[in-house]
Design a protein that fits this description.
mainly beta; 4-stranded antiparallel beta sheet; Immunoglobulin-like; about 5% helix; 6-stranded mixed beta sheet; about 120 residues; globular
């Protein structure tokens, strides 16, 4: 079932070291199809650190993976020594009547995520 009335899957990346949105983070969304992951889209976070909808269409139930290329972000900022190069989060969409917001709080030495609203 696909719900075309909801925003789908969104994200917001905050650079906690700087206390600001993380603009320009490359983010890739993949969806599991059987045993393989199929790329859905790759976008960069905007000036507010957000991507409003990583899906071109409606939200479908299933297993997804979101990949944040944090090394590329830190390189752009002149920090070539972050501990993390990629942050990969696997999650399951079970309720297509609600959007899924996957924020990332990031610094060169730590990261955390949660299901946002």
């Amino acid at each position: 079932m696909v719900n075309t009335n909801r925003p789908g899957i969104s994200t917001h990346v905050l650079d906690t070291k700087r206390g600001e949105p993380a603009a320009g983070v490359p983010v890739t969304l993949l969806k599991k199809d059987g045993e393989r992951l199929v790329p859905q889209t790759t976008e960069e976070t905007n000036a507010d650190g957000r991507i409003g909808n990583l899906l071109g269409g409606g939200l479908a139930a299933g297993a997804y993976q979101i990949v944040f290329d944090v090394a590329a972000y830190f390189r752009k900022r002149g920090d070539n020594s972050p501990v993390f190069t990629r942050v990969v989060l696997d999650f399951e969409v079970t309720d297509v009547s609600r959007g899924y917001h996957i924020p990332l709080l990031l610094s060169p030495y730590s990261c955390t995520s949660y299901r946002g609203t």
